[in-house]
Amino acid sequence: MDKRTDRKHRLKNCIKWNLHSNIGCLLVSVLTAAAFSMEMDIVSDELISQITNAQSHTAQLMYRLIYSVKLQGISSVLFVLFCFVLYQYSASLGKLKKEEKILGVLMALTCLFGRAFYQYNSTAVLVSGFVQMAKTAVMFTGMLFFFPHFVKAVRQYVPRHFRFQGGFDMVSPTVYRRVVWGILLAVWTIHLIAYFPGMFMGDTEDIVYMAYNYRTGLVDTVNLISEDVLVVDHHSVLYTILLGFFVKFGRLVFHSENTGIFLYTVCQMLFTAWVLAYALYKLKGYGVGKWFRTAILVFFCLFPWIPRYAIMATKDTLFADFMMLYLLLVIDIAEHSTEQGSGIKTQQLVGMIVYAVLIFLLRKNGLYMVILSLPFLLMMNKKWSKSIIIALVCIFAVKFVYTNVLLPAAKIPDGSVSAALSIPLQQTSRYLKYYGDEVTEQERAAIDAVAKCDALPQVYWPDRSDWAKASWRKDATGEDIKNYFIVWAKMLAKHPLTYVAATANNYYAYFYPVVTDLYDFERASDGGIASANAEGYFAFKASDSPISMSCRELLRLVDAALMNIPFVNLLCTSAIYIWLLILSWTQSLVNRDRKLLMAVIPMLMLMLTILSGPCNGNIYHRFTYPVAMCMPVIAAYGIRDAKQDETEGVETVDREV
Prior knowledge:
This protein has 29 helices and no strands. It is mainly alpha-helical. It has three domains: about 5-160, no CATH class; about 175-410 and about 520-640, no CATH class; about 415-475 and about 475-510, no CATH class.
């Protein structure tokens, strides 16, 4: 049976009328819609008493379940129809596979618990009485039906039906790359005009101040080596030097720090656009169809995270750029792993070391991503062990020299140790908030030796541990930290679920889709400029010209559409990119695609470091930004076509490099 006949056969089975299966499928679809529409709020006794005088527990339960379902008219009808088609299509593909069941269960769990944390900062509402437990069972059952079949349909449908030939492309890969670069710059220029001279964020003020050796709040978190040096290695010293150079250059040559920031923004935008154009160029060579590449190009053009980080004065943009280059280099190495006598070329080895060093110099967690993922390359070719060892030795050597030689010589202290303790401090903060009366004076003293014990319950913010970290005492000794963790362990034994809740509450939005507020970019930028000017050292100014204001209004309209159009607004969540990473990972394992796995592993390591950070995915999207930028490229590589026409093959691309 050829592919066309097989497709027609499956479609026929999908739509064939069978009274029993269609009615069952419709009932399951209604249950799914009810599960997703059910509110977690406790239905009040007053409401039920106004409706019925029934005293039966069963009747009371049914009434409460029914009045917990809040259907949304035509939206609910469309969702029922969507589920009906989804279940029919999934059934036509055969039984669920093991990995689809596992992913489906994980999605259902994160959706249920994530929603509880999002609405109530707790999962207690799920088990507060028999009625609530019954509602939880209904919701979980509906989600258990939906997610495994959804995963199955996506994994089967996308590779089979999204290979049509539409989309933007050019015969010459080099010309294609240049045109893509021009398209990105043309669209991003609207953002640059709107937010001239460039966008600021919360850390920009500290970075610019440190570039001039002005005092910042960071000096109060560490013990300075010299009172004359107010730079702290909390933010990247390399990035501080880079951004400071442009600001100083603007002041020196143009007598304007605004011009300096603008010049930096233009250079960063040019480089970021080149990196993304290069990524699409490489995908073309790897055999990724032009439809997928066009979709990714549209995403890079229109999804606000990408162009706004491209014009933002933050280390996260360059970090993501070098992440992308590092991943593409890893894919290149993996692509040639099967060639006879192939090894990691000297040029590739040097590039890997340079990218790795720049990655961890821009953000400290980049070091763990690199060193934990590099050894996995041996899965491709064990003969690469010498090259991998050389790379690791060089990376560790640079790290050692930077930390133990260069920083002390420049009298720059390392950042506060509290950055590495955000999770336990957040757990302690929640514990003190809810069980503070159970803490002994001795335990309080142990906590107070490392953090302000009285402040911890007051500053507890479920979605963000920054305030718990801010209570850290910079003079805490190693012995103090040891005693603190002894107390921390005792509290864990008493109320383990409190620790679990504190952690989950701080990270649920990385797995449960919560739409981020795109207007925060503008508010944070305007606030960052005001903060940088507050001490009178600088005179940064956002453009208020008519053309800038018009561009801002246009972009606000786009933001409003992206945040409010159903399904499209999933792009504005951190969770969609994390799940795309997880799906790509499972795909590489199921299909035994070691090349894809080599690209996915560094992203998994980065995700683990993100989950040790201070902020939830709906609060601070800068941690998710590198994942959001890189994952469309990695996912597209996972569905590459090995039989792509030779004019678009890897050999052609490599020849034109």
